[in-house]
Write a structure and sequence with these properties.
This protein has 381 residues and is mainly beta. The protein contains 2 helices and 34 strands. A 4-stranded antiparallel beta sheet has the order 8-9-10-11, with no helix packed on it. A 4-stranded antiparallel beta sheet has the order 12-13-14-15, with no helix packed on it.
Length: 381
């Protein structure tokens, strides 16, 4: 009881002191505004149970531990914690964990995939993807669908056609080609897409070139077209089998793969090659004439070493449709049911894509900026 003679302000100060004493007796002031209950201790910027610290003294990160309410914890920086996505450590059930500090950073928000889904704004199947840089990419697909990525989001473009588009490639933002069924070829001049006269009614499935005046398109029945900067003309391919992919290192070193093998253009004419496999090949990409990858049915991967095509072990039996990379030690191939395999320069290994939709196209700008497209408008990054 306060003495009767105490001034009113003295009574107020003493009351505040006793109240503060009561608060302090049941808390710990950890500094920086952090107040912990009496039964917990300060650990950096958090309040933890003493047993969380005792459990992990002298233990390495990811060693098993447990404490009240958490029967299966892990030691993280000498503190027993419940495993969670975003803690910066890869625990059971996770394939990555980079603390998820930014979107599309190589680890999905649930830490179960290296790929993050993007909002494409469509449910139409997407068959091909290509771009000029991180802020300028195009995806093409079913019923004339064309999407553009500006570095932030995907948006539809008017294609002027309802024909399925299978391939896209260009030399720059104002010189992009898209090819599709019934001989469809579209060209983007930087502002809008317009149709081109292809001279064929055959389905066209892939397009690639070395420059504005040297572009190749391939398709069914051995169709090969060449654009010289002015018009498209039919080339003699010496095959009647469907050609599904085209890529090269220069005007005199172009490869095309398909249902019944591989052909090569030496700058003058096309000639057949021994493909190294009897299965259909869908796509190809390489770093030079001595290192070309081709992918196809049943997980087939073959590599051209400058002389012959040699089989590789892909680690999957799923059909692989397209392949692309940044270099010999960083190559991606995509296929059925969300299949993604990666080549690190030594061997191929499966990646977790986080989708079961077929993936039909792949392209990127660097190892940390790769786009995958596929069924039902799927886009992964």
């Amino acid at each position: 009881m306060l003495p009767r003679g105490c001034p009113s302000f003295t009574r107020g100060l003493l009351a505040s002191f006793f109240a503060l004493s009561c608060i302090e007796s049941g808390t710990h002031d950890c500094g920086g505004g952090l107040i912990c209950p009496a039964d917990m201790v300060c650990a950096g910027s958090a309040c933890v149970l003493p047993e969380q610290m005792r459990q992990c003294v002298g233990h390495a990160n990811l060693d098993a531990c447990r404490y009240s309410g958490v029967p299966q914890g892990v030691c993280l920086n000498e503190l027993c914690e419940a495993p969670r996505c975003g803690d910066g450590f890869i625990e059971d059930g996770e394939v990555c964990d980079d603390r998820n500090t930014r979107p599309f950073d190589g680890c999905s928000p649930d830490c179960r995939s290296h790929w993050s889904p993007m909002d494409s704004g469509t449910t139409q199947d997407l068959f091909g993807v290509w771009g000029t840089g991180p802020g300028d990419a195009f995806a093409v697909g079913y019923l004339g669908t064309i999407l553009h990525f500006n570095g932030t989001s995907w948006s539809p473009m008017a294609s002027g056609t309802t024909q399925n588009l299978w391939g896209v490639w260009g030399t720059g933002p104002d010189d992009v080609f898209a090819v599709g069924i019934i001989g469809t070829i579209l060209h983007l001049d930087g502002r809008s897409w317009s149709p081109m006269t292809s001279g064929t009614g055959k389905n066209l499935l892939s397009v690639w070139g070395t420059g504005p005046g040297d572009v190749f398109a391939v398709g069914e029945s051995g169709t090969v077209l060449h654009f010289n900067g002015t018009s498209w003309s039919l080339m003699t391919s010496r095959t009647m089998s469907a050609l599904l992919g085209v890529w090269g290192t220069g005007p005199g070193d172009v490869f095309a793969v398909g249902i019944m093998g591989t052909i090569h253009f030496d700058g003058t004419s096309w000639s057949p090659m021994t493909p190294g496999t009897m299965t259909a090949l869908w796509g190809l990409w390489g770093t030079g004439s001595g290192y070309v990858f081709a992918v196809g049915d049943f997980g087939t991967v073959v590599r051209f070493d400058g002389t012959s095509w040699l089989p590789m072990t892909s680690g999957t039996m799923s059909t692989l449709y397209r392949v692309w990379g940044t270099g010999l030690g960083d190559v991606f191939a995509v296929g059925d049911l969300g299949t993604v395999v990666h080549f690190d320069g030594t061997s191929w290994s499966l990646m977790t894509s986080g989708t079961i939709n077929d993936l039909l196209g792949v392209w990127g700008t660097d190892p940390g900026d790769v786009f995958l497209v596929g069924k039902l408008g799927s886009i992964l990054h």
